[in-house]
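Q: How would the structure tokens look for this protein?
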Amino acid sequence: MMVETFADRLKAAMEKQGKKQVDLIRIATAQGVKLGKSHVSQYVSGKTIPRADILHFLAETLQVDEDWLRNGMSENNPIHSGMETLKSNENIKGILGGEKMREFRKSSKLDNVLYDVRGPVVDEAARMEEAGTQILKLNIGNPAPFGFRTPDEVIYDMRQQLTECEGYSPAKGLFSARKAIMQYAQLKRLPNVSIEDIYTGNGVSELINLCMSALLDDGDEILIPSPDYPLWTACATLAGGKAVHYICDEQAEWYPDMDDIRKKITDRTKAIVIINPNNPTGSLYPKEVLQQIVDIAREYQLIIFSDEIYDRLVMDGEEHISIASLAPDLFCVTFSGLSKSHMIAGFRIGWMVFSGNKVFARDYIEGINMLSNMRLCSNVPAQSIVQTALGGHQSVDSYIVPGGRLYEQREYVYKALTDIPGISCVKPKAAFYMFPKIDIEKFNITNDERFALDLLRDKKILLIHGGGFNWKQPDHFRVVYLPRIEVLKESVEKLADFFSYYHQ
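A: Here is the predicted structure in token form.
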């Protein structure tokens, strides 16, 4: 019989070495290791497991393999020959205090849930970093590591209000935050919006999950773009629904393919998702495209979910239009926040706005309220800065015009990438991503995740392959152009060299 839990393995090792809890504490004290009586008691009882330094001390003291003590998976013999006796001897019941413990496995609901933005390629990068390798990260839209700073006024306001943010807020959020969001929604021409139609969240991600959980029964379908921001697909799947991906057409500026949308609507389709401005392509949908989507939603009586987190990061003099402004007779849920536009991704503050015709969504809204109440409220200090952030001068405006940092970085990366033989790209108009295409015949690429891993190992550059965004062909990858020009230059030069010899 195998010893299953950490506590069981620890007790078995102590038994073999003839050590009691007090002995471990005495040895730790002599070696200058901070290990208290209560800590050891919790380890032995199975209430907690130790951090890495304490685990190392225990393994060394008890003369067992550290990996085995941590998870029981080491190939090394943990307690020498005596352990074999333990595995087969009846006295193991005396050590375990009963029969073999059952194994607890993750829910089957997670079997088809993928989120490769933080998936296997990222895990490999983390392993390489732990081994001392420096990685150029172009994989995630996190502004802070690349020198983008939160506006001083926002930081000042949070500091001033911290002492007033110690308790829970109402479930939907602070009045001041929701009032500011309502006024912003009015500027975006969202129809029929009151303060009760606004919910704050710990980023848009939390609210997407909440909306999917409240809406979808097993087998219900929801239309999601391909490529997508994979959280939408993951949350729909986790909720028991079926994510049905409609194609966005690269030859048409990555706009949604209306014919493909229509083909994929069934009697189980409840809603359509749009991501505008788009992640991962950087596409910005014009009014005529949005109107076509509204027409389809109206014809088939679909809810519209519009992810607009990048709505203030629009370049080239273009204007972002909220799809809800074109659909006063439909029920729309519009998502946005401050993570990207105000460079405060770690503060976790986003929101959603209900607009249009809410009569037919009364029961759904009741479900939303139920789930919103269950999580009590979103981050209150982050809520406290919404009013300041949305009012007055927008510092992001200086980034997205000629001479501005985001604009110039986009210009450089676009030209440099498209100069690489075998690489093409639709120039993005918004956000801070682009989605280049690889000539897979030229490079014989059949597996884009393998491509991303090969690039990581060869050139120490971390990118997310197209499959991570539910794009079915192995011919794309996403680039984040947030790093400074000098870092981007180094990255693209390495990428060009990689493609000069790469063949899968």
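The first strand starts at residue 136 and ends at 137.

The longest helix spans residues 485-501.

Upvote if useful.
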